[in-house]
Structures are given as structure tokens and as C-alpha cells.
Amino acid sequence: MTTLSTPAQIAVPQRRACLVTLAGYPFAVEVRYAREVVVFDEYTVVPLAPPYLLGVASLRGNIMPVVDVRPLLGMAPAVAGHEVRALVVECDGVKVGLLIDEVLGLEALDGPSLADDGHDPGAGHVIAGRLQREGGDVALLDVRALLTAMGGDTGEKALA
Q1: What is the pLDDT of residue 88?
Q2: What CATH number does residue 47 fall under?
Q3: pTM over 0.85
Q4: How many CB atoms lie within 10 A of CB 98?
Q5: Which residue among 46, 47, 92, 102 has its CA within the 20 to 30 Å range from the CA of 159?
């Protein structure tokens, strides 16, 4: 005998976001792009690199760019030390470590909590929407737009 699930029993996947801080401000990244949070004890500065590229680091033998998205958001660049914390994101096969201050946690994106405000002055091209929370709105970063803004061709698995 086959038992069919009732609509109440069928689990609908919930979209979630990883909340992080940049320069003390909260931002969100969809979990589907977030891979892990790492602390790079060291990274190599690349001569003549664009200002957003802090350098490259080895993650389990794989070299990946470590980038600071603050300038793309209209913020002052980070002052990076010897050790940096990064949220590793992946989009269309391109992996990048986004420099972050800290991780705040995970939050649901479904329902009325996600507002698409169109554009944010100065950073609208990399903001996908706003997560409405009790403590104030949190900008949802558009990972694909961030990689494109940094010269990444997500179709070719390379970051310029």
C-alpha cells in the first residue's frame, strides 16, 4: 500500500541567508552561494592588483582570491592584517573569499521579510534586496553581480 503525503507534510525548501558584518554593518548572502567561513593565517599580495583584491590564499591546496567588497558598497576599504576572516562564496564555479568582520548567523529569506527595493544609492548594482529584521534592514548581496563588478566572468571560472 502506498501512502501519499498531505500538503501539510510536504517540506518546502526554505531560502536562507548567512548574515555577516562588514565595517560593523550587517549584510546577508544567500546560503546557496555561501560555502564556508575561513580564517586565512596568511595570504599573498598580488602586485598591481585591483584595489578590491587583497591577495590570494591557499584553501586546502586550492588558490583563491581574497577580496574586499567594501569599496563596491560605497565604504572605505578594510585595513587587513596578517590574518583575515573570509566567507567563501561560489557562483557558476567561481570561488572567492569575501573579507568579513564576523558571522551573525542564518536567517530565513522567504515570505514578506525580503523586500526588493530596486537600487541602493552607490551600491544598488550589487544589492539584490533587503532582509527586514527587528533591528533594522539588512542588505542582501548579489553574489553574481559582485563577481561581475570585480571583473569575474562566472561563465569562464576566472576572476580578473
Answers
A1: 97
A2: 2.40.50.180
A3: no
A4: 25
A5: 102
